[in-house]
């Protein structure tokens, strides 16, 4: 089995790809590009744009992503989905010329991404190399020009599902929420919470909202629905912070 290079490509801007990532694309023999179905051609187009901008001369192979079976329980659904993705990677790599095969990974392969877990399912298992990328969290805080943490303060990174099921994490000051298709912040008591939200971070379509959750939460939900309908897909994340310190209050005034 060939070497498989997992290259983090940031959140949509070719400028997010590191110098190491650009060189890896140029050194690869084959680059795999997933196609995720009708209405999501823009995701593949972004990857093709990054490949072109890198100057890579590799053979580019596309493959179709499977869909999850909604009839299965969540955990079983994900396991079977990952198994099928691994099989499609192996199939796409068949008869590849000698040299490394590269796969472009949205954001960073290590943060709320299943690429590394899927690679472990491949038979035979390739030799892995991971090239880190800009995360959605970095793109979000940069776009809003805010620090991720307060002074000496902890940060909780979680998912929309966890926020819906368990509410605000106990004793946390700053919470970053990813993979949230249902605007799970609407289930929280908005008192004292501020939010920084961003979609299509780093791309030409970037959209931002910030302010007190009570005031902008509804607007974020409306804007998210409108953007998803317009583009056919959406990737967004947000940071929530309690107004429990002067630093938090100062950031909220700037957000307004």
Automatic annotation (TrEMBL):
Pfam families: TP_methylase. Residues 4-215 form the Tetrapyrrole methylase domain. Its EC number is 2.1.1.152. It is an enzyme of class 2 (transferase). It catalyses: precorrin-5 + S-adenosyl-L-methionine + H2O = precorrin-6A + acetate + S-adenosyl-L-homocysteine + 2 H(+). Keywords: Cobalamin biosynthesis, Methyltransferase, S-adenosyl-L-methionine, Transferase. GO terms for molecular function: precorrin-6A synthase (deacetylating) activity. SUPFAM superfamilies: Tetrapyrrole methylase. Pathway: Cofactor biosynthesis; adenosylcobalamin biosynthesis. GO terms for biological process: cobalamin biosynthetic process; methylation. InterPro entries: 4pyrrol_Mease, 4pyrrol_Methylase_sf, 4pyrrole_Mease_sub1, 4pyrrole_Mease_sub2, CobF. This is Precorrin-6A synthase [deacetylating]. It comes from Salipiger profundus. The lineage of its organism: Bacteria, Pseudomonadati, Pseudomonadota, Alphaproteobacteria, Rhodobacterales.
């Amino acid at each position: 089995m060939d070497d498989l290079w997992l290259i983090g490509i940031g959140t949509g801007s070719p400028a997010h790809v590191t110098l190491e990532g650009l060189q890896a694309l140029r050194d690869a023999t084959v680059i795999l590009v997933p196609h995720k179905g009708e209405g999501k051609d823009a995701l593949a187009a972004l990857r093709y744009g990054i490949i072109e901008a890198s100057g890579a001369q590799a053979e580019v192979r596309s493959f179709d992503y499977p869909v999850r079976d909604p009839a299965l329980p969540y955990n079983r659904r994900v396991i079977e989905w990952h198994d099928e993705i691994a099989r499609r990677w192996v199939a796409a790599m068949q008869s590849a010329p000698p040299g490394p095969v590269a796969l472009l990974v949205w954001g960073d392969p290590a943060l709320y991404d299943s690429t590394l877990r899927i690679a472990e399912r491949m038979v035979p298992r390739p030799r892995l190399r991971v090239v880190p990328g800009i995360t959605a969290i970095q793109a979000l805080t940069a776009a809003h020009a805010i620090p991720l943490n307060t002074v000496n303060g902890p940060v909780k990174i979680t998912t929309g599902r966890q926020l819906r099921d368990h509410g605000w994490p106990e004793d946390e000051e700053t919470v970053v929420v990813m993979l949230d298709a249902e605007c799970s912040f609407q289930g929280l008591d908005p008192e004292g919470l501020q939010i920084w939200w961003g979609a299509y971070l780093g791309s030409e379509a970037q959209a931002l909202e910030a302010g007190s959750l009570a005031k902008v939460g509804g607007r974020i939900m409306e804007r998210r629905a409108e953007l998803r309908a317009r583009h056919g897909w959406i990737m967004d994340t947000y940071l929530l912070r309690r107004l429990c310190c002067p630093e938090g209050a100062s950031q909220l005034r700037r957000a307004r």
